[in-house]
Amino acid sequence: MNRNYFLFIFILVLLACNTEKKYAKLFLHEKDSVSLMIMKPDVVFKTNYKSNEITYFDSLTSSVQDSLLYARSSFIQYFSDTEIIKCYYTSLVQGLNDYDLKPYGTDNFGTFFEQKTKAFIFQIAQMQIEEYKIPFEESAVFGEEEHTVNFDLNAVNFNIWYEVSQLNADSGLMTILYNQQNIQDKISGHFKKYFLSEDVRYDYNRKDVSVTNVFELAAKTGKLHAQYIFDYLMNRALFERLKQKPKFYYHYDPRKKRISKAKDNRFIFL
């Protein structure tokens, strides 16, 4: 294949992308005709995977295992389901308001179901927080000798599954959306050789994850998911307008008022 062929393909993709962006922009003028309801979960599934820190863990009954994992957790035992759900949901609603979307809550069921606009229900099917350890290793060679340090870092995953359905849609199909956000301890350091003593040391600073950071993660995820929900609605409208799957999934930046490829910054479709 020659150079002209690849140039031709590039031009076709560029033209298709520009056309899709133009159509996606139409949603910005139509978003007022879209209503959505966010349904919160009742519980948060909380899991501690640090079983290796408990002596004779495998010999214990499952109920004792669960009790010990909870009691010895670094994070999940220190907040209630209500607190973490509220933190996420409040940030989510604020983020949706930034996109000029006014979500209905479950206390507005009657008003929502009377809507004549295109309406969507976003139900948080599951919210999960996982804490676990990840290994950190760094090494350096001085002369013929290799020096290595190892640390176990705390990490936390925040997982969300959404079930999305359109009110009064002919198909009645439900879409499952998923996203995971995470945080972990951070280490910044380097090996240093002290020539007078010939010692080699690893000098480092460590910033450990705290319970406050988990709440910050929930709030950050809520705001991010407001963006993802807006992008989902925009891309869904684009799909319906094109009558086929677009070449790319797009993201709208309200601050720059620009549409670009979302790449990995989006929900995963399950």
What is this entry, summarized?
This protein is an alpha+beta fold and 270 residues long. It is 34% helix and 36% strand.
Describe this structure as you would to a colleague.
This protein is an alpha+beta fold and 270 residues long. It has one domain (3-269). Helix content is 34%, strand content 36%. Strands 1, 2, 3, 4, 5 and 10 form a six-stranded mixed beta sheet that branches. It has a two-stranded antiparallel ribbon with strand order 6-7. The protein starts with a helix and ends with a strand. Residues 4-15 have low confidence and may be disordered.
Mean pLDDT: 88
Helix content: 25-40%
Radius of gyration: 24 Å
Low-confidence parts: 4-15
CA distance, first residue to last residue:
37 Å
Give the topology string: H per helix, E per strand: HEEHHHEEEEEHEEE
Structural domain count: 1
For the biggest sheet, the summary is:
6 strands, mixed
Broad shape: globular
- Secondary-structure content class: alpha+beta
Instruction: Tell me how many strands there are.
Output: 10
Q: What share of residues are in beta strands?
A: 35-45%
Helix run count: 5
